[in-house]
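Handoff note, outgoing to incoming analyst
You'll be picking up this chain. Sequence as last confirmed:
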Amino acid sequence: MRNDKKHILVTGGAGYIGSHTAKALAAKGFTPVVYDNLVYGHRWAVQWGPFVEGDIRDRARLVETLRRYDISAVLHFAAFAYVGESIKSPALYFDNNVTGSLSLLDAVLEAGIHHFVFSSSCATYGIPDRMPISEDTPQSPINPYGETKLIVERALRWYGAAHGISWAALRYFNAAGADPDGQLGELHVPETHLIPLILRAALTGTAFDLFGDDYPTRDGTCVRDYIHVSDLADAHVLALEYLINDGPSVALNLGSGYGYTVREVIQSAQAITGREVPHRMTARRPGDPAILVADPTRAERTLGWRAQRSTIENIVTSAYGWGLHHDQEGRGLTATGDRHHLSTNTSDAELK
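Most recent structure output, in case you need it:
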């Protein structure tokens, strides 16, 4: 590797995917410097390097942090990511996700940094007209969240052309699961995503809403491509190394290439937990595509990356195991601790 500077800024590194990536960075010899305002992140999740509390819209604090830690590259996860909230409050999303990202890019320029990995989303594609989704699929977001991610991708292209920043935009599908070592998981309040809702229903007996069983799929329920959070973390580290070694800027899909229906996820959860998963069938939600599945070929070819842990059995098992042993502050539970919580998964494209 040509650049021996090892300090990497991880914005949003106290959050779900960011914290798992910080762990993966440390395992490869990097020092992750987490920068997070803790609106959705958790201080306990910062375990592998320094922590700086700050907002990405605070350019002066960013520049000071970049210089103080002699940062050589940035991994940018910090964003608001509730699709429904983005529709109700678009200004909030454009301010945080777009204005904040531009503030970060300007700070990166001021500090003389040239490598930037961006946490993007399959939400930039909207409702594709063909499956699986390749990077050449037209990007046409159907909500402000997806629009903000697409705007930042476009800004990266122009900043790269004008200022020589090399970048990787990683468009991932449904992030899921928990750290196999049990050190990390996701605590998300409020929870809107499928796997934690299913597991919560299994543990508490409280039914969750299943939106639609009349889709043109093998059992009538939506199909989504779930990717284990640790596979995502590995991809970010590989993207960083690719840029450091002079790889050209690139946008890549991160997915397993296989989709599971909602009913199949329920069946897996029932088998793993040994409990029934009560649910109420309700009408489709407007704008939910029947199928979202990635074509990960370009990521495999460019980074040498492939999803290794992303069977639904592995994902549900890791999420369930972490949720059983940690409370809603991320603290370990004793053998007699309260086990009736579970919020151990998130998804970039709200499902489902």
